Protein: Acetyltransferase (GNAT) family protein
Amino acid sequence: MNSLPPAAQFSPDALALRDPDAVLFGDRLQALGSRALVANVEAEAFVERAGGHALPVIVTHGAIGTSYVAAPHSAYALYPRAELDLVDLGWMRGPASLAIAAADGVLRALAINRAVQIDNWLLSTCLHGHWKGEGLADLRQRLAARFPDHYLLIRSVDDWSCPELTAALRDDGWMLLPCRQIWVTDDLQRDWAVRKSVKNDGRKLAQSGLAIEDVAVLGDADAARVAELYAMLYIAKYSALNPQYSPRWMQLAVECGLFHLRVARDASGQIMAAVGIVARGGIATNPMMGYDMGRPQSDGLYRIASWLVGDFALRHGLRLHGSAGAGHFKQQRGARSEIDYMAIHAGHLAMARRLPLKGIASALETLAVPQLKRRML
Structure:
């Protein structure tokens, strides 16, 4: 582990882990309304129980153009279309554009955004913690009876982070649609801490003069600053389809234990970088990151923010789910790729809304997955 100046030392007590409070999360989301917390999500929320686990459930009724965290049409059509301008696919650009256009039309016709989404925390990656699929069939039956015209969805499914849940979904007849290439680190001590790039990132923090704080209570001013930094990166630089979190969202995420929030402050106390880390079931991921994009790249704020996530996982002996994107950067720091899936159940729907999805799942597995594995996206 890198040696840091006193201002960058961390209190072990401040790094304590706790499971997020699904009931508080769901109740607050329902009471305030989704748009007050995430501006580009239009959804109802409640909490269901399965096998003793409290699971937030998000219900959407078909709106197009909202964030991919609650809109599968955006995940499979709008977001990939936007990313075509950000990556070099060479000769594959034309076929990819046609495939995305076809998916757009089919998914609109299927009303794929009319969906009940189980264990959805409105994050880019929804870790499922210790839920291994207990009570899945009963939960499916209850929700299908309550919402007979909606698909049932579970995002962020893969054989690395939730193998038992993935197996349970397959056994219960759910379709698994390939969604993203994700970057994962199995052993932080072996695969991350020893890397030259990681040691350089730690030195950059040590030289920065920034003070690291693990935030237990997020005040209004700091919440506004964290939301601003996140928006600079994920909304302004990347895509308006990323979840547009409000300051109240940041406060709720900290209050209910969804985020372990780490910030880097300058000498005046201004937050220059922030990461929201989710730790569940022995895995950490950081679905919220932001830093001051007005600072020169030489300040290394992205590197510092990323280091804070790896340091957190290392200190707790967690595996690290690096989500999607920045493949080369993450591979240099010990990550390897896996494929992330969206599980969909449509057995209670008309055949016309079921069969096309099977064709899409097969096409994605055959055509898209090999391309993802060949490219560090």
Summary: The domain at 6-16+185-336 is CATH 3.40.630.30 (Aminopeptidase). The longest strand covers residues 175-185. DSSP finds 13 helices and eleven strands in the chain.
